[in-house]
Amino acid sequence: MQQAEDFRRESRVLAEVLEPLAEADFFTPTQFKGWTIDDVLGHLHIFNHAAALALDSDEAFHSFFADMTKVMQAGGSMIDAQRPWIGDLKGRALFEAWRALSEDVADGFAKADPKARLAWAGPSMSARSSITARQMETWAHGHEVFDVLGVTRVETDRIKNIVVLGVNTFGWAYAVRGLDVPNAMPFLELTAPSGAIWRFGEESDDRVVGSAVGFAQAVTQTRHWTDTNLQCLGHGARAWMDIAQCFAGGVSPPPLAGTRFVQG
Question: Which residue from 22, 20, 44 is spatially nearest to 32, judged by alpha carbons?
């Protein structure tokens, strides 16, 4: 699957900016819930492991994820839930473990049937959707790292996988909030990093226009949409971007305007 290679490249790009860090740098807090860079790596590492287990069998995934679920149901945070498995792994050692497992996961999914159904925290997903979700999370949580290090990431057209995920989860953003799903998605006209124009949906006056990167930032909630170059024309377009959420789990509000940015 090309998506497996896109995940591999996304992981390598993040690894390149992390490679020069000193041990103490991994414990720098980011703009995302006060997570440190180390917390971010732990989160990516444990869910890469979960995806590898899901590729092996539904039972392997559910057995592993049940322990995390118990911690969160008892009031623990996502970071609390990952600590028992992460153990004493931290800093550069965690970085090296995450980087190695990323390559293994890419290898495994590259050989998988794209249509195979795999277990996950919510509904099951196709193998293609599963590895796309891993790319999405690596890209999205990578924002926290790039932002705190004051680095602007160079984007490529592999971001289209994340854009498509954002389109496919249009209804989810409403359903997870108990809201009626609109009959039609606003029209999208997005400019890819290469300059190509990507269009989704039926032509209408209700539309989202701007860069593919800005749209991906909005649906992954790494930026409030007003901090991107997106233009939302029409009530439906603004309503969608106000709640867009392309990831599973409970309701997650986007960051407040002006709170997520590349630090100087």
Answer: 44
Q: Measured between alpha carbons, how far is residue 102 from residues 98, 124, 132, 243 in Å?
A: 6, 21, 13, 30
Are 143 and 40 in contact, with CB atoms under 8 Å apart?
no
Q: Cα–Cα distance between 26 and 237 in angstroms, integer?
A: 38
| Mean pLDDT, residues 248-261 taken together | 93
The SS3 of residue 74 is coil
Q: Residue written as tokens 């609109």?
A: 182
Q: Which tens digits make up the pLDDT trace of 40-75?
A: 999 999 999 999 999 999 999 999 999 998 998 899
Whether the pTM exceeds 0.85: the reply is yes
Q: Which distant-in-sequence residues (6+ apart) come within 8 Å of 23 by Cβ?
A: 91, 92
Which amino acid belongs to residue 25? D
Largest CA distance in the chain: 54
C-alpha to C-alpha distance for 21 and 194, rounded to whole angstroms: 30
Asked whether residue 123 carries a pLDDT value surpassing 90, the answer given is: no
Tell me which amino acid residue 15 is. A
Residue 65 and residue 118 in contact, taking contact as beta carbons nearer than 8 Å: no
Inter-residue contact 216 to 160 (CB < 8 Å) = no
Measured between alpha carbons, how far is 261 from 144 in angstroms, rounded to an integer? 9
CA distance 146 to 152: 6
Task: Report the range of poorest mean pLDDT among 11-15, 90-94, 119-123, 240-244.
Answer: 119-123
Give, as one character, the DSSP assignment of residue 39: H
CA 110, distance to chain mean position in Å, is 19
Q: Quote the pLDDT of residue 248.
A: 84
Q: Are 44 and 138 in contact (CB under 8 A)?
A: yes
